[in-house]
Amino acid sequence: MMMMPATEIVFSSRPRLHMLADGGMLVYRGSGELHSDMTLIYRRLTRFIKPASAKQYVRHALHFEDYLMSIGLCWNSPPQPLRQAGRQYLAAHGARLTERSDHWRAEPDPDQVGPPNLRLVIESLRAVYTAARHLGLYEYEDEPFRLTITSAESGDGLPAPLPPSWSGLTLPRPKLSNPDRYFVFKGGYWTPKFLMDAADLYEQVRAAFAEAPLRDQVIVRCLFEGGPRISEICSLTFRGWDYSVGEKRPAFGPSFKLPSKGKHGSAIKPVHVGSETGSLLRRYFMTERRLQDPLTEAYEAWARALGIEDYTPEHYRLFLSASGRPSARVPVFLTRGGRDYTANAHRKGAWRPRMATAGLQVRPHQARHWFVSMYLQAVELLFERDAPQYRKNREALGLYMGWAYPEDMLAVYDRTLDEHRTYERVMDITTQLQELLTQNIFPLLQPPTVPPPKSGEMTRRLLALQKEGSS
Fold first, then answer.
1. Residue 421, Cβ neighbours under 10 Å: how many?
2. pLDDT, tens only, 42-69
3. Rg for the chain (alpha carbons), in Å?
4. What's this model's pTM, rounded to 2 decimal places?
5. Per-residue DSSP letters for 253-303?
6. By its UniProt entry, which Gene3D superfamilies does this protein fall under (predicted)?
7. How far apart are the first and last CA of the chain?
8. φ, ψ for residue 379 (rounded to 5)?
């Protein structure tokens, strides 16, 4: 076992990422010099991950490069010195490093309360150097961070290796059990939170967003009513909104398609919300968003030429088609400056401040758990005596949520729901007991005393002998 000394890292200036009109990006070093290699790496990364993730990866790589330059190395130095510098760099980020036979294990140091971004730093370095090798920008065959793993991926977290081919065994890797709790990093510790939330959670969160912009109100409604992830709903595009489900749910209404997790940004996941939320989304598009859309001026010129006075999603679709703009690249939710409104922007600028003001400790992902819990309880209530419909509606939920293992996830929620109900029963009994104690009727709860046995012939003889002995 070997511990690496911590090294303080100071950045003299911050690298810049300059977005281009065509969606590309130019990467600059902290000195202001164009970083052509990292610009090419960013473009390759966006072929496989979202641009927002690629930006984060590149930023971490640039910070690492600044550190390398401070110790006389460059980002494309040989693997061995890069690994040594990387270990010192990770130690400075609050990592505790342990040497293994073929890798270094990195885990958060419990004695330090640092930012919980250790995994992101490692993933960034891995992705950037892998992309650099594919582009021919890193000439060494050995990737410098291929054998550095985090504690969450090591030990028990890795599945057991498959049996060798000559063994005759073809057993698949056992699936890890899904926990019925998730963990939140707070105050330097990971604390468990249960999946179940109060039935009125949606009303509490909506009340907290009552005075928020329409954009954030719509996002909150969609989270609770449709069950998407926060990253998915914030990625809604105009093309994804142009989705109809029969006559009752026309396009630009309460149904839309979102990018699904692990599908590289393709809008293939249907999400359905209430009609009131669909109307609110249209109102946001025609009022608040219109003032933020950088294409509004071009749309109004096009509309005047055709004598169109209304600003509706249907007319906007015609405008995009006439101007040759792909609707899949037009975001529905915008910032005040007309940029994409990301999940991170919603968390920092809307969710966290309003939850703190309302005194609620709620994360956006809890809306997804709430949606599933309410759906399952409704299915149980409506189809308790209809086994085929009960089963079909539960299976439909698994398909709708896009779970890889629907049966496992449903079992997790079933178990959590049972535990929640058991907890409620125990608390109900405990509350009633406390009420009885406050009413001074505790003696009624005492077990009855057993009366002494009646004296028989043998007992009378023993008492007589005791009297004779005492005399």
1. 12
2. 888 888 777 888 888 888 888 888 888 8
3. 31
4. 0.52
5. SSEEEEEPTTSTT-EEEEEE--HHHHHHHHHHHHTHHHHH-TTHHHHHHHH
6. Intergrase catalytic core (1.10.443.10)
7. 83
8. -65, -40
